[in-house]
Amino acid sequence: MEREAYEPALVDSHTHLEELDDLPNSLQEAKSAGVCGIIAVGMDIESNRKVLQIAATNPQLVYPALGYHPWQIKEEEVGANLSFIHDHVGEGMALGEIGLDNKIRIKKELQGRVFEKLLDIAHESNKPVIIHCRYSHLRAFRALKKR
Q: How do residues 39-84 score in pLDDT, each as one tens digit?
């Protein structure tokens, strides 16, 4: 008995589609290569809006994850970013990219506060998280373990 060739379904689990110059061509190339799903992560309000728009115009291929990347955290923008994510969390399939980064100069305490609040939103909405944790694995693990 001969077996049929198996072609695995490919899912790109972490993309920054809003940064691509030729998005339609890139999406077509991905489909041609066998990609059947793309999780597009956000980093702040602007990229989250773009990710939601890209997903809306590419259903059944692009799935949005709303995030607030530690590189993008600014004290004066925290409230607006968290509010946007809270208000739109139901439109995404996950929260991401979120996390901690001990190599950047953004205050660790501020990063930790934002990460904790994002984990609370994820927990309350029953969404998975896509985590960035450069040189901060133990801190990120401990924050996750609390939930």
A: 999 999 999 999 999 999 999 999 999 999 999 999 999 999 999 9
CA 139 to chain CA centroid, Å, is: 19
**Cα radius of gyration rounded to whole Å, the chain:** 17
CATH number at residue 21: 3.20.20.140
CA 47 to chain centre: 10
* 4 domain-assigned: no
Q: How many CB atoms lie within 10 A of CB 11?
A: 11
Q: How far is CA 125 from the centre of its chain?
A: 15
For residues 58 and 52, what is the distance between their CA atoms, to the nearest angstrom? 10
